[in-house]
Amino acid sequence: MDRLTRKAYELRRDVIEEVYRSKAGHIGGDLSVIDILTVLYFEVMNVSPQNWKNDDRDRFLLSKGHCTDALYITLGDRGFFDKQIAIDTFSRFGSEFIGHPTMDVPGIEMNSGSLGHGLSLGVGMALAARMDGRSYRTYVVLGDGEMAEGSNYEAMMAAGHYGLDQLCATVDLNGLQISGTTDETMKSNDLGKKFRAFGWNVIEVENGNDCLQLLAAYKEAERKKGCPSVILAHTTKGKGVSFMENQKKWHHGVMTEEQYQKAVKELEGVLA
């Protein structure tokens, strides 16, 4: 197992603990997006606790903010704060680690949760980098269900118009949202064609839970000049836990003790 894949499964184990203790969270999307977060924070992005206040740090925006459970675990493991505090207090009264990203938490660039806003803010950050002569890149992660929000298409158009090659979006294409499949709820058809129509460089990742495929895609995006890039990552909702994989009910679900033990056993078996 490569280093990044092992890290992603270690973080999955922590997310299971965090969500089980809190009886809250969006575990299905957490498990589909964790490989993307792992590759970005542990290999791709120029951001760390040491340069967090540096104007040239890379920016990361989680537009699908309901999966902040996974982001907190990733940031904690990266050293932005004590990860155990997030595990112990997530969604508890008085905790900074609430159910959507908040800038009260070190490493969070924007409050999110109301879907469809992250890409627009990412366009603004990428424009600001150009205007200020900064070298930082801006990364935005969106959900496929979120692509029904019209604000995304205005942002796609603006990013293409301005040729924002310091902007990289990733769509977590797990095919499910709270009310059913994305095709049943609001069919988006070929997202690649839509992004290309607005002047984006489109990179398809067949297995968006494969860290090495993701890493190659992000490197390709960084090399592309003259236009923004989007990575369409085909993922599995609930990845890594057999009874959660591709199950709509685990968009948001509370594990029983038996389910928790089964999930832990499966993930620790991968890591053994």
TrEMBL record:
Q: Which residues cross the membrane?
A: none
Q: Which Pfam families match?
A: Transketolase_N (PF00456)
Q: What is this protein called?
A: Transketolase
Q: Which organism is it from?
A: Lacrimispora amygdalina
Sorted alphabetically, which Gene3D superfamilies does this protein's record hold?
3.40.50.970
Q: Organism classification, top ranks?
A: Bacteria, Bacillati, Bacillota, Clostridia, Lachnospirales
Q: Does the keyword Secreted apply?
A: no
Range of residues in the leader sequence: none
Q: Which UniProt keywords apply?
A: Thiamine pyrophosphate
The residue ranges of the Transketolase N-terminal domain are 11-263
Protein family: Belongs to the transketolase family.
Name the source's superkingdom: Bacteria
Cofactor(s) listed: thiamine diphosphate
